[in-house]
Write a structure and sequence with these properties.
The complex is a heterodimer. Chain A is α/β, with parallel strands linked by helices. In chain A, 41% of the residues lie in helices and 13% in strands. Chain A has a four-stranded parallel sheet. A two-stranded antiparallel sheet of chain A has the order 5-6. Chain B has four helices and no strands. Chain B is an all-alpha fold. The chains are: A alpha/beta, B mainly alpha. Chains A and B meet through strand 5 and helix 6 of A and helix 2 and helix 3 of B.
Chain lengths: 297, 84
């Protein structure tokens, strides 16, 4: 039985396991496994057996409120590398739980609009029609935006506080690169550029415990994968005022269809309109006591 | 401003920020886990609304180590006291 490289954490840990297992050198030497720290809703998600956990040589442990539940099975001499979740709310300061998201389907496991917008949610909550929410969005969103300079300081503090609890750090990279590089597709889904950096840092931290990891040509492997990375299903648009404030060099300035789900990319205006129409429909169905329907095109 | 005044105003900000239902009490021991939508992002939004409510700037190094609403109230109180 091959030794195990075990990833524990959220969807980012799953994405890392995809990258690691795509590398021929790594795949030949190790079983690369992921145990989610959340309900991943993936139908063919494979349960990891205790025997594979007991064969772990490197345990990549993402910092999480829910600690790894089978720590007692891990070998005492396995290398434990702690790393942070890589996220950035700074570019989406209006992000909130979308209580008006539509129902999940096999194609949209998290609904079509899992990432809420505070200005939209507030408008829908006030009982406005879809047309009214759309018409008032520019004014409402400007009013809802926080002081971005203060928010930036708070975000950096949040990232540093989490880094302090991990062996592998990422806040320096995120803070240093978010203006010039596309690091995130939405608040918690890093791009391949960011995942590549995290991959290199994890491999370096694993050290001599996993010699085959050090031999892997990980950049060549990444070049064979989807250039947007495993977490690019959903692209959330960034508010124009935020793009301007932080002078995001990489952000597209034209009106292209860049946003929403991978199979149905929309322009900024289309995304906004569809999210608002979906939210109002979900609200109205709930008021009538109807079950929330899934996406209607 | 008394400690009770500070807490009541703070609890009001918490209620408004997270749309807390009237039946749900906000107590000193209330934590983020007790309130739907209070996550690491909305924590920053809450902090900025608290700062606006009290006209202060809270010390950033303390903001992400707060355990509950009571500790946030204490931080507000001490920041108010230190205000020139």
């Amino acid at each position: 039985m091959k030794p195990t490289l075990l990833f524990y954490g959220n969807c980012q840990a799953a994405a890392l396991s995809v990258i690691f297992s795509a590398d021929p050198t790594i795949a030949e030497a190790y079983n690369v496994l992921h145990i989610p720290s959340f309900d991943d809703r993936i139908p063919d998600s494979v349960a990891v057996n205790d025997e594979a956990i007991a064969a772990t040589t490197v345990f990549f442990d993402q910092h999480d409120k829910a600690p790894f539940p089978k720590g007692d099975i891990l070998p005492a001499d396995c290398r434990r590398v702690t790393f942070p979740s890589v996220d950035l709310f700074l570019l989406w300061p209006l992000h909130c739980v979308n209580v008006y998201n539509d129902a999940p389907t096999p194609q949209t496991l998290w609904g079509r609009f899992p990432y809420g917008d505070r200005a939209v949610v507030d408008g829908v909550m006030q009982g406005l029609s879809a047309g009214e929410v759309l018409a008032s969005y520019e004014t409402a969103s400007q009013r809802a935006l926080p002081d971005l300079d203060r928010f930036e300081k708070l975000e950096y503090a949040r990232l540093r506080a989490r880094d302090a609890q991990c062996e592998v750090k990422m806040s320096d990279f995120v803070v240093g690169a978010f203006r010039t590089q596309n690091l995130f597709w939405c608040v918690n889904h890093p791009s391949m550029f960011a995942l590549r950096e995290l991959t290199h840092r994890l491999i370096a931290a694993a050290g001599e415990q996993a010699t085959e990891l050090q031999r892997a040509a990980i950049d060549a492997t990444i070049a064979t994968l989807h250039p947007e990375g495993p977490l690019s299903d959903m692209h959330a648009p960034i508010h124009p005022a935020v793009v301007d404030h932080f002078k995001l060099e990489w952000y597209p300035r034209d009106d292209g269809p860049y946003f929403g789900l991978r199979d149905n990319r929309l322009t900024y205006q289309q995304y906004l309109r569809e999210m608002i129409e979906c939210s109002v429909r979900v609200r109205d169905e709930a008021a009538l006591g109807l079950p929330t329907s899934s996406a209607t095109q | 401003m008394t400690d009770d005044d500070i807490f009541e105003r703070l609890a009001g900000v918490v209620r408004e920020t997270f749309h807390v239902l009237p039946a749900t009490r906000v107590l000193e021991e209330t934590t983020s886990a007790d309130i739907n939508g209070w996550d690491s992002l909305s924590h920053a939004i809450l902090i900025m609304r608290v700062e606006e409510e009290f006209g202060i700037e809270l010390p950033i190094e303390r903001i992400y180590s707060l355990e509950n609403v009571g500790e946030l109230a204490e931080l507000v109180r001490s920041t108010l006291e230190e205000r020139p």
